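Hi F.,

I've been meaning to write this up properly since the lab meeting, where we talked about keeping a consistent format for the predictions we share between groups. The idea is simple: the sequence comes first, exactly as it goes in, then the structure tokens exactly as they come out, then a line or two of notes. No screenshots and no reformatting. I'm using this chain as the first example so we have something concrete to point to.
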Amino acid sequence: MRERIERFAGRVRDAGGSVHGVPDEGSLAQVLREILPEGAAVFVPKVTDLERGLSLDWVRSVEDPKDAAVTVEEVEFGIAETGTVVVTGRDDRPVTGSLLAERHVAILPEERVVETMEEVFRTLGEDPPANVTFITGPSRTADIELTLTIGVHGPSALDVVLVGENSAAISGLGNMGEKGEERVSKGEKYTQEEVSHEDEK
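Output, unedited:
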């Protein structure tokens, strides 16, 4: 389990995301306070027990994901092979929260980290959700000149918060570095070249 968690965390970072680890759900508030700027507009679906139990009294809660700067949600799976998080949509859970906000905070119990995409489909079985979204890193878009831009058609930043005793020691920024994180928290767009050299300035 620990090796799988570490491999997943490494792949998330390789894709430009950030990974944080907490030993249990009771420790989530502390790490979320580090991630979420005070007063930020935050959407939480409040579908799962974990989501309903979150107390984020330093941010501004919004009911519509279109109004959110950040979406915080429990995700269905993580894929160690690619560093992908899997969001499923059913009648009571829209997937738009993971697509519309500037920042996506994906909370993932460590026991739901699987090795491959095939395992995800096997687990979902013969009656899968209406929508299954696979997210690997922040949104990336390239123009005709192959200039890669982050966050045009989706979140500029992805934070994965792993929950479980094997995940407690895992934490740290992704490839954006600290200055890149500051820009994301302000909702700024930037290119991949800027991200790569951000900490050299």
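Notes:
The mean pLDDT is 82.
The domain at 2-200 is CATH 3.40.50.10420 (Rossmann fold).

If this format works for you, I'll send the rest the same way.

G.
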